[in-house]
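job 3f2a | input accepted
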Amino acid sequence: LTFEIMSAEDVANAFVGHFYSTLDANPQALAPLYQPQSSLTFEGTKFDGADAIVRKYMEVGKLTHDIPRFTKDVQLSTSANSMLIVVTGHLKIGQEGNPLHFAQTFQLVAVGPNQYYVHNDFFRLIYG
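job 3f2a | predicted structure (128 res):
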């Protein structure tokens, strides 16, 4: 059995589409993307482990992301087994109000061929 290794750009494209569509539809389904050693810093507050991270995303409320208009940058990290993905875009919280600008950075770490978990996750709203 051979695996075709995906490029960092291909992994980032697949990850971003999956992450945000899952976050919008069913945040609980994000749990398998995180490990016990994963961390989320959300607006300056840190959450450790998959359970705490998913709980935080659920507390935010119903989100709608404008995924087709996102910007995304990706670079390999300290080795070919990890990468950084920076995403900027717009989201809506609930059904009312104007879209909000946000930036989010992920460090993905490989656990197998074309299989990654989110080791670090940083989220910030951008005001102004």
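job 3f2a | The chain has a mean pLDDT of 94.
job 3f2a | closed
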